[in-house]
Amino acid sequence: MKQDIHPKYYEKAKAICACGNKFEIGSTKPEIHIEICGACHPFYTGKEKMIDTAGRVEKFKKRMEKKKK
């Protein structure tokens, strides 16, 4: 490896999830804020999480209808 070109590696970097879960990982940043983790991800929890995307789809459909007219 070349010297002095790699970022500093933090072996005990803090990862903080939006759900409040905190854990340590290896990273080039000392602290990372994430939106979803293993404690709140639907695949691991078995609970389905609804994300409101209906508004986006409806807006898109309205735009397409206006374009056709």
From TrEMBL:
GO terms for biological process: translation. Keywords: Metal-binding, Ribonucleoprotein, Ribosomal protein, RNA-binding, rRNA-binding, Zinc. The keyword Ribonucleoprotein applies. Part of the 50S ribosomal subunit. Binds 1 zinc ion per subunit. Zn(2+) binds at C17, C19, C37, C40. InterPro entries: Ribosomal_bL28/bL31-like_sf, Ribosomal_bL31, Ribosomal_bL31_A, Ribosomal_bL31_sf. This is Large ribosomal subunit protein bL31. It comes from Candidatus Azambacteria bacterium RIFCSPLOWO2_01_FULL_37_9. Belongs to the bacterial ribosomal protein bL31 family. Type A subfamily. One of its GO terms (cellular component) is ribosome. Its cofactor is Zn(2+). GO terms for molecular function: metal ion binding; rRNA binding; structural constituent of ribosome. The keyword Calcium does not apply.
